[in-house]
Design goal:
The protein is an alpha+beta fold. It is built from 2 helices and 6 strands.
Length: 115
């Protein structure tokens, strides 16, 4: 089993969800997050004063999958989250971690049956 964490642009969330649905990955957790990366924030003006906004808003997806779904999941996310053919800074990152065990609280199922 694998635990996949993807950080993507909020505007790309629907495209990513659709791409995951096409490969029959329906279970995921989505969180609004903020971070600093290569984009290095931006400047905003509020009441005539400029402020440096260091944190950039992103969306974090967390997905647990069987090993056979790991590569298709990463491929679907990367294609749907990329801006244009070549992509650009700020499109996001995908992390894949080994998942030792998982348990469904309601039934007590464990392992791949609980995913």
């Amino acid at each position: 089993m694998k635990y996949i964490i993807a950080i993507v642009q909020p505007t790309r969330l629907e495209a990513v969800k659709s791409a995951l649905s096409n490969i029959e990955v329906f279970r995921l957790t989505v969180s609004d997050v903020q971070g600093i990366g290569r984009q290095k924030g931006h400047t905003e003006t509020y009441r005539g004063h400029e402020y440096q906004i260091n944190f950039v808003r992103k969306v974090k997806l967390e997905i647990a999958v069987d090993d056979k779904f790991a590569e298709p999941t990463i491929k679907a996310i990367s294609q749907a989250a990329r801006s244009g053919a070549d992509g650009k800074i700020g499109d996001g990152k995908i992390f894949m971690l080994p998942l030792e065990d998982v348990m469904r609280i309601s039934t007590g199922e464990r392992g791949t049956d609980a995913i």
